[in-house]
Design a protein that fits this description.
There is one protein chain. The protein has 296 residues and is of the alpha/beta class. It has a single domain (27-277), classed as Phosphoenolpyruvate-binding domains (TIM Barrel), CATH 3.20.20. It has helices at 3-22, 27-35, 48-57, 68-71, 83-96, 120-132, 146-157, 173-176, 185-201, 213-222, 243-246, 263-279; strands at 40-44, 61-64, 106-110, 138-140, 162-167, 205-209, 227-230, 238-241. Strands 1-2-3-4-5-6-7-8 form an eight-stranded parallel β-barrel, surrounded by seven helices. Helix 3 packs across helix 5 (83-96) and helix 6 crosses helix 7. The radius of gyration is 22 Å and the shape is globular. The N and C termini lie far apart (62 Å). The chain binds 3-methyl-2-oxobutanoic acid. Residues 44, 63, 65-67, 110, 207, 209, 230, 240, 242 line the site of 3-methyl-2-oxobutanoic acid.
């Protein structure tokens, strides 16, 4: 092949790649949403059923949060969640989408406890494993301690987009509890400083959980990157919710996530009906043997 033909082929491939990538929901799109004042919606998913529902509902971002440890694995905290479990659930979430890849929501996956606190190399391996083996495009991690900032910078240098998470950070439950955060002046100053450090370190967005609305509102104005709130008032660039909370499926609802549906009650009532009718031995639909092929 001549040089001109080869070059033509290369530019064609680049044009196609650019077209494909441009049509994907990317992390940079969220910054554009902020500039356009368009609210960003983030919902969690943990398996194929929940991701197909969340996708159909039109969420911009699907978060495979480590809250799955509590919501679906029955743990008391998020701490026991492993990297293998995060990968297993992220893959199920990605398989559950019905739309073509280019129309699917952006998938962000939580880095579980101890997958990024033990050094940069371990963090790159953990985040890389999630992105390599699923269609997730970014990871989320908690805090802004100096070691965490180094990890964030390294991940970003390695091409892995990072979402930050401040305020109530469930992986620090044994230090912070599940209480609202940033209530006194000192911790408010810390959250302002930490948010700026996360932005400077290259995070594409920050989740602010269970903090006063005025703090989130000021950070929304101060930061160039989107501020995604949960229990942080309504003046944010977007909101994130644990889907099981919104659907009223959780046994313990956090105070800031009001259910939009009495999901547990609806499910229990429907299943009770089924159990009752089955116990009464009511007709179960089936096909007759003449219509089926019974070979044995
Ligand atoms: O794990 C999770 O679901 C989260 C959200 C609460 C933001 O981190």
């Amino acid at each position: 092949m001549g040089v001109t033909a080869a070059w033509g082929r290369v530019t064609n491939i680049l044009a196609i790649a650019k077209h494909v990538i441009k049509n994907y929901m990317q992390t940079t799109e969220l910054v554009r949403f902020k500039k356009l004042d368009k609210q960003i919606t983030v919902l969690t998913a943990w398996d194929a059923i929940s991701s197909s529902i969340v996708e159909a509902a039109g969420a911009d971002v699907v978060l495979v949060g480590d809250s799955l440890g509590m919501v679906v694995l029955g743990h008391a905290t998020t701490l026991p969640v492993t990297l293998d479990q995060m990968l297993h659930h992220t893959q199920a979430v990605c398989r559950g989408f019905c739309k073509p890849l280019s129309k699917q929501p952006l998938v962000v996956c939580d880095l579980p406890f101890l997958s990024y606190q033990c050094g940069e190399d371990k963090a790159v391996e953990a985040a890389g494993t999630l992105l390599k083996n699923s269609s997730a495009s970014a990871v989320k991690l908690e805090g802004a301690e100096p070691e965490t900032l180094l990890v964030i910078k390294r991940l970003i240098r390695m091409g892995i987009p990072v979402m930050g998470h401040l305020g109530l950070t469930p992986q620090s439950v044994h230090q912070l509890g599940y209480k609202s955060q940033a209530r006194d002046k000192k911790s408010q100053e810390k959250i302002f400083k930490d948010s700026k450090m996360l932005q400077e370190s290259g995070c594409f967005a920050i989740v602010l959980e269970h903090i006063p609305g005025e703090i989130a509102s000021r950070l929304k104005k101060d930061l160039d990157i989107p501020v995604i709130g949960i229990g942080a008032g309504s003046d944010c660039d977007g909101q994130v919710r644990v889907t099981a909370d919104i659907l009223g499926l959780s046994t313990e609802q956090p105070p800031f996530a009001k259910p939009l549906l009495a999901g547990r009650e609806l499910c229990i009532n429907a299943l009770r009906e089924w159990v009752k009718s089955n116990n009464l031995n009511q007709v179960n639909p089936t096909i007759k043997t003449s219509e089926s092929k019974l070979d044995c």
